[in-house]
Design brief:
alpha/beta, Rossmann fold, Arc Repressor Mutant, subunit A, 2 domains, five-stranded parallel sheet
């Protein structure tokens, strides 16, 4: 397997964010030892703590231990389906960047729809992977203030620090993508976000072909918001979506 190793990584250019506030624990799940070792070296040079696994079964055990902030997951594992590991990780609220030799748009969309935060195809630059790790961790970092925003006279509450949203006092069980869409729209109530802009806000970079899945994520999010879902997440025909309720003062 060819992997492009570019210029040495500058440790100072990569933020270190994790459960301890400054160091992230990254679980690398990859059956090829050379790739595991290469990613470990780059991630450790970036200041992260690194766990590695060559099998899906071992990865599930490590995830159950609750140590990982993010998983670099090879979807082509030798023992179990990588998508099963992906589903388990996202059910625990752990961010996932999928690694795969599959390069078709359909395969990428499937991984993202299953809850992956990002997608990297082989061969890849390990430095690019480290930067994508940093981007995903940064999107889930707690803000400087208390991070709590209330809308519609307190009915909708978005707590950035705890990564929790609730409606009428009931917590919403959101996927990472649904959370990203809700917080993007809630950052500017009333403003219209195009589908491509939501992709950038949720994923952190352009990804051709993913725009068409935004509608399905919005549909699922509306369902979780109940009878007022279409009011809270309003459609602007031919443009995109906006938050249809005001933020409380």
């Amino acid at each position: 397997m060819e992997i492009s190793a570019r210029a040495p990584l500058d440790r100072d250019c990569v933020p270190r964010i994790g459960q301890d506030g400054d160091v992230a624990t990254i679980l690398v799940v990859e059956d090829e030892r050379d790739i595991r070792d290469l990613l470990r070296r780059y991630l450790e040079r970036a200041g992260h703590s690194v766990l590695t696994s060559g099998t899906g079964a071992d990865a599930l055990r490590l995830l159950e231990d609750g140590s990982a902030d993010l998983v670099l997951l090879d979807l082509g594992l030798p023992d179990i389906d990588g998508f099963d590991v992906l589903r388990f990780a996202t059910s625990l609220g752990v961010s996932v960047i999928a690694l795969t030799a599959r390069s078709s748009v359909e395969d990428r969309i499937r991984g993202l729809e299953k809850g992956a935060d990002d997608y990297v195809t082989k061969p890849f630059s390990p430095q690019e992977v480290v930067l994508r790790v940093s981007a995903v961790l940064g999107r889930h970092a707690a803000p400087a203030d208390d991070g709590i925003r209330r809308y519609a006279a307190g009915r909708l509450v978005v707590d950035q620090q705890r990564h929790v949203a609730s409606l009428d006092g009931t917590a919403l069980d959101l996927t990472p993508t649904e959370w990203g869409i809700l917080t993007a729209l809630a950052s500017a109530p009333g403003r219209v976000f195009s589908r491509s802009e939501l992709v950038n806000r949720v994923r952190g970079y352009e990804f051709a072909g993913y725009e068409r899945t935004i509608d399905s994520h919005v549909k699922n999010l509306r369902h979780k918001l109940g009878d007022d879902g279409a009011l809270i997440l309003a459609t602007v025909l031919g443009v995109g979506y906006r938050l249809g309720v005001d933020r409380d003062r």
